[in-house]
Amino acid sequence: MDLAVLLVNELAVTRARGRTTGVPEDRRAALDAAFAERGWTSSRALTGSDADRLAGVAAELHPAFTAGPDATAALNQALVRHGAVPNLHGDPPVLAFHGPGADLVDAWAADTATALAMVIGVGQGVRLRSCEAAACELVFFDVTRNTSRRFCGLSCQNRAKASAYRARRRA
């Protein structure tokens, strides 16, 4: 889930925290920086071509977070296109949803699409959210007990509450 959120937020979102962000020029550098910020390392090196293909994957995954009408169809297509098949590989064995010989993009796409599909399939699709603050499209996986999270972070929450307060004061 964390990888799905990261890919969508880094490669498919054009407005974040009240500002227009645009699509990064150097996608590989943007992903490398996001991975380093989280302390993640990949077993395979990410190339510029991989990052460009991952932008397409992020666009496929984005509707799942916004509960769009095409979310299920888009996820099903992504699962098929990237060969999502449960299997064990490695030593010790690890459950993955991509073939052992899959390239980096297909592996990440299959695993992230499967994670989203599993969340939706067990009736927890409401936990896949998009920030409710104005001018913010960032997505997140709501892990609160009562699924009450509405904003991607504290800065968006503060902006929204201050805006609502100013609107009440004007009225």
Automatic annotation (TrEMBL):
<dbReference type="Pfam" id="PF11706">
    <property type="entry name" value="zf-CGNR"/>
</dbReference>
<dbReference type="InterPro" id="IPR010852">
    <property type="entry name" value="ABATE"/>
</dbReference>
<dbReference type="InterPro" id="IPR023286">
    <property type="entry name" value="ABATE_dom_sf"/>
</dbReference>
<dbReference type="InterPro" id="IPR021005">
    <property type="entry name" value="Znf_CGNR"/>
</dbReference>
<protein>
    <submittedName>
        <fullName>CGNR zinc finger domain-containing protein</fullName>
    </submittedName>
</protein>
<feature type="domain" description="Zinc finger CGNR">
    <location>
        <begin position="127"/>
        <end position="169"/>
    </location>
</feature>
